[in-house]
Amino acid sequence: MAANGPLNVVALVSGGKDSFYSILHCLANGHRVLALANLHPPLDAATTTSRAIAEPGHIAAQSGAATAVAALRNSPGHEAVPKREQHGAPVGAGAGDTGGSQDENGEEVADLNSFMYQTVGHQVIPLYSQVTGLPLFRQLIHGTAVDHGISYQAPNGGHDEQTEEDETESLVPLLRAVINAYPQVNALCTGAILSTYQRTRIESVALRLGLVPLAFLWQFPELPLPSAIPQAGSGEHKDDAQLLRDMAVTGLEARVVKVASAGLGEEFLWENVASETCVARIQRALRRFGSGGRGAVLGEGGEFETLVVDGPPSLFKGRIIIHDHDRRVVREGGGSAWLNIRQATVEMKADAEVASGTMDDHSIRVPSLLDPRFEIILQTLCDEPNDDELGYDPILLSQASSSPLPPSSLSRFGPTSSDQDWYFVGNSGSVEGQTARIVDEIRRRLDKETLPATAITNSIIVLRRMADFPTVNKLYGALFPGPNPPARVTISCGDLLPGDADITVFLSVQRCLKTKPDHRRGLHVQSRSYWAPANIGPYSQAISYPLLSDEIRGNNDESSSESPLAISIAGQISLVPSSMDLPLGASGNSNGNSSPLQITLALQHLWRIGIEMQVQWWSSAVAYFPRSSSVDDMKHNALLAATAWKAVHASIPKDPDAVDVDPWDQKYNPLYISLAGGDSGASAARPPLPDWDVVNGVDADDDDDDDSETQMKPLPFMFSAEVAELPRAAGVEWHAHLGFAKLNTGSVRLYSKIGSDGAPDLYHVVIQETGSDTFVQTLAVYPKDERVESLSFEDAIKYSAAAVEKSLTKLFINSDAFVHGTEGNDATVAAAAINPKLTYVDAETFNRCEGSRGAVIPCRSLWDARGVRLGMAGVYETRLSGRI
Predict the structure, then answer these.
(1) If you write DSSP's letter for every residue of 616-641 in order, what string do you get?
(2) Alpha carbon distances (Å) from 517 to 457, 520, 549
């Protein structure tokens, strides 16, 4: 599969605005569009056979004059294309299902109402070949929506033999016909904006056929606007309608051909949606009926559909003409109405107009690489500050943030039986053999515990050599044939791996997902876009699951749906999303001028994914760097990362024009109620990241104007780790250990304790809500000082666990049940019962790490946010059952 350089693209077109605007972005990114492809519904008996067209110019072009008449429903006996030999298989005519709808003359007509494909106006599609000069392939839609899940899994593992065909699979013969005619085709373009349902289905087919999926409009409304265009001061809220304005600037003319919303009546039919007048009317209508949610103004919830009749001459060599008397309104009831188009013609543009159309006129708005928020961060890092001006003191920022924990009836302390950590170490032989044995071990473990592979939510793969990644990836990927594989972090630690091991694998497993698989949700975007790097392969951008499992909380489904969520997010490296290359000039090592840009870009990827998953707070984070040329260079990079982490948590200026909405209005007033657009289930008012309202003891309105460090808000603990190599020779990889979503106000409490007499520094993140159990993540951190000079690795692990146990006991001492135990159980369990989930080790401090509990990541060096070198950093997770 091609990964770099210009791609040869086949573009899926439905006739709608999004598919054609996506083609314009393909051209703007330097790709070559070789053909168009379209799926159409069955044609009624009066319509002659349509065929897959594989050659350009199949309809004679007459510049500047009205030309060929389209073969439409009410033109029996007229062929859509000349009868000639075609490359693709012919598509036969089928009987249409009228469904009882009638047009204005009482004639029965029907819209297929496909879950997947726009079908209104499909009769005009054959004209797009002449209009664009590109070959058009067409294929009949077979089947219906068999798989109704948001994420798609191909039947029979993607093989052709199927008992009941999903309509998605109609894409397979269509694209194979294109590939047979144009073997150089290696990419597929689609207009998906917010619809996970549509995107995942197209990705499934594209990747099976070896095509790179391109979705340049994915999350486009969330991307930064040019500085000349006004936007909200927060940088988080965007006006979805800006995308329609961008289309208008290019000259795209997209007419409304279907409405299906209480706010949009048939008076909107045939309006040009890519015009300011129509945009304003749609916005007013949707707000009036309380349906102005995310993506609604773009039609992402099915509010309307469009038909493109003209566009910039760089793509459109002609325009489609449809007269008033050739459009008839069809009313389906329930507020749905659409246009039955009976006849259309093509008018070719003058040669001079076509010659003037190039992609160099900058009319296609390509979003900036960085959001304004991250542009400021990059500028801060690029101002050549010295080390004394970088970083921050994590101790001061974590002090005095939370009030004491309230009284509770906590009765269980320590790891639960619901979540497990599995750790596998390669032994001897080739890396292929070691990986195969580990994969077999994982399968046996899953079988033994009768767990599906979807119970695995996160994996960390540590390699001796990053060059082995393709070999490992193929074997590892076989574990996850279904959609939404676990989030994943991959690093190389070189010769620091123990013994003959070439690979170690750490898995987080959630047993509660065995009986409640629908509580696991994934974000797995495999298309190139401007948003965040595509994850083409066996790992998702993010996986969410209940933070406090049903096994702990009981089987109350309603309660579980409202409980906090844990979010595992894949490691983020600094790829440019649209090209999947490192930024221009990035050398890929951890020094030089590329570090600020790579640190900032990778952090933006983490933030965008976190916002999409509605993360409100991170537990902690680590920035991995490849081997540095010197200790000073690594320290500088660590301070740059810490500065970026501090900056991204800074208060966002409020929009001075924003209107505060009363909570009653948000819940009951139709003017302010936000309905989800598309199928993502995301509200227009997603929580900010960070969401300071959820942090106990923090004034969310405090803008940190005071220069004093003690006045600053507390941050999730972060540190930096120097390893050997990172994927794609990247200069940094951000790894957030855990994100939290669906949190209530004040439910996050932060505590810190500075160690002494051989004890580590501790940083606790406590998630505690009324009526809920309690989750604690602890970072146990040993600075590289006299505290660890005389300790063995095993002693350091033991002392860390004892310190965590002692600190948690004090933290919850106000609970009598916790102190004294209940029903004979001693809640103040021994330190041996508290195991580190992950242990990062400075190899210079501890050069032997075998035989320890939990996953060990050996590092060349570790650094905190002050640029202080660390000897060890252990990540602990503890759950306490009971109620506040």
Answers:
(1) -EESEEEEEEPPPSSHHHHHHHHHHH
(2) 11, 6, 12
Q: Give the DSSP letter of residue 219.
A: T
571 neighbors 725 (Cβ within 8 angstroms)? no
Alpha-helical regions (H) of 237-344: 242-250, 276-288
Of 17-26, 259-268, 554-563, 849-858, least confident by mean pLDDT is 554-563
Instruction: Give the span between the Cα atoms of 571 and 577, in whole angstroms.
Output: 15
Dihedral sign (CA 20, 168, 140, 158): positive
136, exposed or middle or buried, with CB in 10 Å at 0-12, 13-18, 19+?
buried
Residue holding tokens 């210009």? 6
Angle between helices 372-382 and 631-648 (to 10 degrees): 150
pLDDT tens-digit map of 545-571: 999 754 444 444 444 557 899 999 999
Give the span between the Cα atoms of 535 and 356, in whole angstroms.
38
Distance, CA of 159 to chain centre: 27
Please give the angle made by the CA atoms of 400, 405 and 408, to the nearest 5 degrees.
175
Residue 189 has φ and ψ, to the nearest 5°, of -105, 135
**Interval 46-77: pLDDT, tens:** 333 333 333 333 322 223 323 333 333 233 22
- Laid out side by side, the sheet with 345-348 consists of 66-69, 345-348, 318-321
Reading the block at residue 674, the tokens are: 């936000």
Residue 703: count of CB within 10 angstroms of its CB: 12
Peptide bond before 394: cis, by omega within 30 degrees of 0? no
- 3-state SS class at 410: coil
Residues 6+ apart with CB under 8 A from 843: 496, 858, 859, 860
In terms of residues, how long is the chain?
884
Query: How far is Cα 689 from Cα 542, in angstroms, rounded to an integer?
Result: 16
* DSSP 8-state assignment for residue 781: E
- For 432, counting Cβ atoms within 10 Å of its Cβ (0-12 exposed, 13-18 middle, 19+ buried), the class is middle
- The answer to whether residues 8 and 184 touch, using CB atoms and an 8 Å cutoff, is yes
> Nearest-CA neighbor of 776 among 690, 621, 880?
880
Structure tokens at 338: 């659409």
Helical (H) or strand (E) element with 353? helix 351-355
Q: Give the separation between CA 738 and CA 734, rounded to whole angstroms.
A: 12
Angle, CA of 412, 415 and 417, to the nearest 5°:
95
Whose structure tokens read 């500065």?
Answer: 643
- CB under 8 A, 24+ apart: contacts of 160-167: 167/114, 167/115, 167/116, 167/117, 167/141, 167/142, 167/143
Q: Are 176 and 2 in contact (CB under 8 A)?
A: no
**Which whole-number Å values give the CA distances from 67 to 317, 504, 539, 709, in the listed order?**
13, 66, 51, 73
- The identity of residue 381, as a single letter, is L
Residue 684 neighbours by CB distance under 10 Å: 17
Q: At 211, list the tokens.
A: 């095509």
DSSP strands (E only) in 418-571: 419-425, 456-463, 487-492, 503-510, 521-523, 542-546, 565-569
pTM: 0.87
What is the pLDDT confidence band of residue 675, given thresholds at 50, 70 and 90? Answer: very low
CA distance 104 to 499: 80
Per the prediction, the chain carries an average pLDDT of: 80
DSSP 151-172: S---GGGG-S--SS-BGGGGHH
User: Alpha-carbon distance 392 to 645, whole Å?
Assistant: 10
Question: Which domains are seen in the chain, by residue range?
Answer: 8-355 (3.40.50.620), 383-652+688-881 (no CATH)
Greatest alpha-carbon pair distance for the chain in Å reads 94
Neighbour count for residue 111 (Cβ, 10 Å): 24
Beta bridge partners of 212: 187
Classify residue 77 as exposed, middle or buried by CB count within 10 Å of its CB (0-12, 13-18, 19+). exposed
